[in-house]
UniProtKB/TrEMBL annotation:
Protein name, entry field: Na+:solute symporter
Matching Gene3D superfamilies: Sodium/glucose cotransporter
Places the protein is found: Cell membrane
Family: Belongs to the sodium:solute symporter (SSF) (TC 2.A.21) family.
Organism of origin: Aestuariibaculum suncheonense
Recorded topology in the membrane: Multi-pass membrane protein
GO CC annotations on file: plasma membrane
A biological-process GO annotation: sodium ion transport
Gene Ontology terms, MF aspect: symporter activity
CDD domains given in the database record: SLC5sbd_u1
UniProt keyword Ion transport present: yes
C-alpha cells in the first residue's frame, strides 16, 4: 500500500475504536452490553444482520469462487436473500414476541439446563471455527497488499509468518474492540462498514472497466460458461439445499437471533429481516463482480486474494486503504458480534446461575473476561486453518453439515408441542453420527460403503461432493426430528408455557443516538475522501463523486433523525 493508503487505514481503524470506547461509556447494565437495551432500530438491526454474514471470509471464500467459477458465486449469495425472507415471515417476529433475552434463554426454558449446556458448547465450538476462518481470511487479504519482503522480516524478528503475525495483531484489536463497546458498537460499525464497502465496491467496477479497456474486453476475456448460474460443483439441487440450510442458520443461529431480539417489537424484527433478505437478493451482482473482472486481468492469480487484487488494480491511492480498512472493520464486526453473543450466553446462563446475586457490574466484567478468552481461542484456531483444509472447504462443509444439527431442533421446538429434552438429545446424536458417516465414510474409496469395484460411484461422489453435503445437511436432521416427533406420544409440559409468553406491554422507542453517531462518522469519512481528492493525481472525478455520495448519506441520516425527534417531542 502507498503512504496514503496506510494513513487512511489507520485513521479508519482508530475511528472505529473511538466509537467503541464512546459507546462503552453508555453501557449501564448487561442488557445494554448484550442486547443494545432492546432499543435498536429495525434498519440498524437489518443492516447489521446483513453485515454479520460479511467478513474478509466473504471476499476470500466467495470472491475466490467468483474468480474461479464466475456467476455461480452470485447465485449462491442470492440464496441467502430467499432464506432471509422466509425467516422474516415465519420466525423473526416470533423470536421477539417470546420475550427472551437470547436464544440460549429460550433453549433453557424449552428443553432444560442439560440441553442448554450441550447447545452452548456445540455452538461455541462450531462458531469459533467460523470466526477463525474470518480472521485467517483477513490476514490473507492484508498479506496481499504488504511488501513481499515483509514475510521474511516477520519470520526473522517475530518468529511467525506474515499471515500469522497479522492474525495475532488483528485478534488483539478485535478482542479489545468487543470488550469496550458491546452490541451497540457492533451494530453501529456494521452499518458504517456497509456504507463504505458498498460505495467502494461500486467505485471498483467502473474504474476497473476503464483500466482494462472496457466491458467488451472483460466479456471477451472470460472462459466459456462463466455466466452460468450453476455448475457441476454447485448444482441447482445444491442451491435449493443452501436456501433451506440458511433458513435454519438465519432463523436460529444465536448471532442472528440477537438481531431479532434487540429491536423494540416483533414488527420491527420482521422489517429488519426483510431488509436483510432484499439486500441479499439485489447486491450479490455488485459484490461478486470485482473478482470476476480480475479473472481477465490475471487468470493465474491466487484465487483467495483475487478480490483485494482487483481493488488494488482499480482503486487510486487512499481509496484502496479505505476499502481494506472496511474489509478489516467488517471482519471485526462479524467476529465481535459472535464474541458478544457467546460471552453473553456464558455470562447470563452460566455465571449468573452459579452466582445468583451477581451484580450488573460484575456481569459486564465477566462478559469482558470471557470475550478475551474466546478471542484468544479464535486467534489460535485461525493460525491452524491451512492445516484444517483451508478456508473454502471449512466454510462450505461446516455450513452444510452443522447448521441443521445445531439450529433446526431449536426452531422445531418453537412450533412442535411434543419435542422434549430427550428427543433433542436423540436428534443431535443420531444426526451428528449420520452426517459424519456421510462426510468421511462414503467419500473414502475402500471405506465402509465403497468397494474396489465401484470406482465410477466414487468419482460421482467426488464430483457432487458439495451437493451431497448440502442435501445431507438438510434431509438428515429433518428426517431424524420427524421420527423423534412421531415416537413421542405426549405433549411437552414446557411448550404451553412458551406459547403463552407475551411481549412486554412497555412501549420502547428505538434509540436515536446511534443514528447521530453514524451521520457524524460518515461526514468525517467524507472529509477524509475530500482530502484524498484534493491531493490526487489520477481518478480525481471518482473521488469527488464518492465524497458527494457520503455527504448526501450523512445529511439524509441526520435530518431523518431530527424529524423523528421533533415528532416525538410533539407527541
Amino acid at each position: 500500500m502507498a503512504l496514503k493508503d496506510i494513513i487512511v487505514f489507520f485513521l479508519y481503524i482508530l475511528g472505529n475504536v473511538a466509537i467503541s470506547v464512546y459507546l462503552g461509556r453508555k453501557i449501564n447494565n448487561s442488557t445494554d452490553y448484550f442486547a443494545a437495551g432492546n432499543q435498536s432500530s429495525w434498519w440498524l438491526s437489518g443492516l447489521s444482520a446483513f453485515m454479520t454474514m460479511f467478513s474478509a471470509g466473504t471476499f476470500v471464500v466467495w470472491g475466490g469462487i467468483a474468480f474461479k467459477a464466475g456467476f455461480v458465486a452470485v447465485t449462491i449469495s442470492m440464496c441467502l436473500g430467499i432464506s432471509a425472507l422466509f425467516v422474516g415471515h415465519y420466525l423473526a417476529g416470533k423470536w421477539r414476541k417470546l420475550g427472551v433475552s437470547s436464544a440460549a434463554e429460550f433453549i433453557n426454558f424449552r428443553y432444560g439446563k442439560w440441553a442448554l449446556n450441550v447447545y452452548t458448547w456445540f455452538n461455541i465450538l462450531y462458531r469459533l471455527l467460523g470466526m477463525a476462518v474470518a480472521l485467517y481470511s483477513l490476514a490473507v487479504v492484508l498479506e496481499a497488499i504488504i511488501p513481499t519482503n515483509w514475510n521474511q522480516l516477520f519470520i526473522n524478528h517475530i518468529g511467525l509468518s506474515a499471515v500469522n503475525t497479522i492474525i495475532v495483531f488483528c485478534g488483539v484489536i478485535i478482542v479489545l474492540y468487543t470488550i469496550f463497546g458491546g452490541l451497540w458498537a457492533v451494530l453501529l460499525t456494521d452499518v458504517l462498514q456497509f456504507v463504505i464497502l458498498m460505495v467502494a465496491v461500486i467505485s471498483v467496477i467502473p474504474l476497473g472497466f476503464i483500466k482494462m479497456g472496457g466491458v467488451n474486453v472483460f466479456l471477451n476475456g472470460l472462459p466459456d460458461h462463466f455466466f452460468n448460474p450453476v455448475n457441476q460443483e454447485f448444482t441447482w439441487v445444491f442451491m435449493a439445499a443452501w436456501v433451506v440450510i440458511h433458513m435454519f442458520k438465519i432463523g436460529g443461529e444465536w448471532a442472528f437471533v440477537q438481531r431479532f431480539i434487540c429491536v423494540t417489537n416483533n414488527k420491527e424484527a420482521k422489517k429488519a429481516t426483510y431488509l436483510f433478505g432484499v439486500l441479499y437478493l439485489v447486491s450479490p451482482v455488485i459484490w461478486m463482480l470485482p473478482p470476476m473482472m480480475y479473472r481477465v486481468v490475471d487468470s493465474s492469480a491466487n484465487f483467495e486474494q483475487a478480490y483485494v487484487l482487483a481493488c488494488k488494480y482499480a482503486l487510486p491511492e487512499g481509496l484502496l486503504g479505505l476499502m481494506i480498512a472496511s474489509m478489516f472493520a467488517a471482519t471485526v464486526s462479524m467476529i465481535d458480534s459472535e464474541l458478544n453473543v457467546y460471552a453473553g450466553v456464558l455470562t447470563k446462563d452460566f455465571y449468573k446461575r452459579i452466582f445468583k446475586e451477581a451484580s450488573e457490574k460484575s456481569q459486564v466484567l465477566v462478559g469482558r473476561l470471557l470475550t478475551l478468552i474466546l478471542g484468544a481461542l479464535v486467534t489460535f484456531l485461525a493460525i491452524l486453518i491451512p492445516k484444517l483444509g483451508g478456508a473454502e472447504d471449512i466454510v462450505l462443509s461446516i455450513t452444510a453439515l452443522v447448521a441443521g444439527v445445531t439450529v433446526l431442533p431449536v426452531i422445531w421446538g418453537m412450533f412442535s408441542s411434543r419435542i422434549n429434552e430427550k428427543g433433542v438429545f436423540v436428534a443431535i446424536m443420531v444426526s451428528t453420527v449420520m452426517l459424519i458417516l456421510i462426510k468421511y465414510g462414503l467419500l473414502i474409496q475402500n471405506g465402509w460403503f465403497v468397494s474396489k469395484n465401484t470406482s465410477a460411484f466414487v468419482e460421482w461422489l467426488k464430483t457432487y461432493n458439495r451437493t451431497i453435503e448440502a442435501v445431507s445437511g438438510v434431509i438428515v436432521p429433518i428426517v431424524v426430528l420427524t421420527l423423534v416427533e412421531i415416537s413421542i406420544k405426549t405433549q411437552s409440559p414446557k411448550f404451553i408455557k412458551i406459547d403463552h409468553v407475551e411481549e412486554s406491554n412497555i412501549k420502547l422507542e428505538p434509540s436515536l443516538f446511534p443514528g447521530k453517531i453514524m451521520a457524524v462518522a460518515i461526514m468525517i469519512l467524507a472529509f477524509i475522501v475530500m482530502m484524498l481528492a484534493i491531493t490526487a493525481e489520477t481518478n480525481i472525478v471518482s473521488q469527488w463523486i464518492l465524497f458527494s455520495t457520503l455527504i448526501f448519506i450523512s445529511v439524509v441520516i441526520w435530518f431523518s433523525i431530527r424529524r423523528i425527534e421533533i415528532k416525538r417531542n410533539i407527541e
